[in-house]
Amino acid sequence: MGTALLLGCMAAFPQSVVKLTQALVRIPSVNPDGDPGVDKTGEADVAAYVGDFLKHSGAEVVIEEVLPGRPNVIGRFRSEPANDGKPKPRIVFGPHLDTVGVGGMTIDPFGGEVREGKLWGRGACDTKGPMAAMLWALWELRDELATLPVEVHFAGFMSEESDQHGSRHFAKHHGKDYAFALIAEPTDLKTVFKHKGCLWADIETFGIAVHGSRPELGENAIVKMAKLIKALDADFRAQLANCGDDEWLGRSTISLGMIRGGTRANITADHCRLTVDIRYNPAVRDHGGPHELLKAFVAHLDPSAKVTPCGALSPCLDTSAEDPFVKSLVEHGAALTGAPWFCDAAFLAEAGVPAIAMGPGSIAQAHTKDEWIEIAELERGAEFWVRWLRGEGA
Length: 394
Fold this sequence. Notes:
Layout: H1 3-8, H2 17-25, H3 44-56, E1 59-67, E2 70-77, E3 90-94, E4 114-115, E5 118-120, H4 128-140, E6 151-156, H5 165-174, E7 180-184, E8 191-195, E9 197-206, H6 221-242, E10 253-261, E11 271-280, H7 282-286, H8 290-301, E12 306-309, E13 317-318, H9 324-331, E14 336-339, H10 345-350, E15 355-358, E16 372-374, H11 375-390
GO molecular function, one term: metal ion binding
Keywords: Hydrolase, Metal-binding
Protein name: Acetylornithine deacetylase
């Protein structure tokens, strides 16, 4: 049955946040980058489903293509003028539509099975469950949204799991319109107001290829890389740490993730590539940023080496705990916390929109071979958003 027909038939309309999560999990929306593990990838089908759900909830819906066949979905709910005539602050609920790949999963990735008090499947926790909690709250409040003291929008972002094209596009074209962004991630319903930034970078060393029987006539790029690896793992790691700890995020880190060099055993390697993952806190940002620090460190040891970012730098999230929306979330029981991972919230914040990440479920279940979310947490998430939007007490 087609997506529009499914939602057009009210008998098939999801009757609970659990049923909604099942419906979302059963629509594959695997990010095509890396190793998706399925032939059909992309977010178009789940964007269409979410768009229909938003329309039934009373929103004006726009499907906004970011990459070919890979759209964001935006829902704008009607808002009545404030009693004092002043514009209402506009907020946006922003989950992501894509999931990581399904290779190696031990359960049906798109089954949406319910057992043992859990809902199972790819995206159940990251982040179709948290998205469903937001959507269900908007459905429950569909007759009240216009009279709330805030104007409510929804934006489902494509490609969060790789390069964050969706949130970057939304921030560029719509960011100035919002007073606050609530990004769905599995945070145990805590308010992630800070998270680390991320730099993935390739470090390349170069040599001179000669016959393996006379290596002294050439220059070995692997040997040059070995010296860099030792220094990166010790001295550069210490340099990052010396930039300073963050109360919520701790110290910045480097992980040496992949290495490749040479072409044959009997040829001296003329090229070697190391890929590193740097997770950095605001202290490193304030010391010039991870890319500049890494480039300077590598150049000092090997002027011929090359440092190239793999994609765009993902910034830190560093939203003020004194923001009134943040304080309101805390007052409703969503305690402050920080995170070592990064998400779409940072790109909204970079565009000037105070942002946090929050949702039911545990990050420990994200990307796992047996991904699940607890039913009780899913329901608690939907209830929290209803209560928070109504301004009801904790």
